[in-house]
Amino acid sequence: MSLRRSQLERQLQNAETAIADYSKVLDEQNLTPQQRKKHPKWKQVNAQRLQIMNRLKSLKIIEDREEAIKQGLAASESSED
Known about the structure:
Number of helices: 3
Shape: rod-shaped
Number of strands: 0
Distance between the termini: 40 Å
Strand content: under 5%
Number of domains: 1
Helix content: over 70%
Largest sheet: none
Oligomer: single chain
Structural class: mainly alpha
């Protein structure tokens, strides 16, 4: 499901907020970074954040490709004149 950049950025911000909030909970439990990586809820929240980041990277690639196509079309139209 493709989303607009603004939606993805908002989702990423929400995911990062969720990670920060859950980090506080894990800090209160005195978990080491190794234990944190194995914690199921942490893994879930982090996976959601990574998925959104990958979607943004893919969107950037698509936008760059579309821009290159537009520039190519514009160049070919100007050369025809």
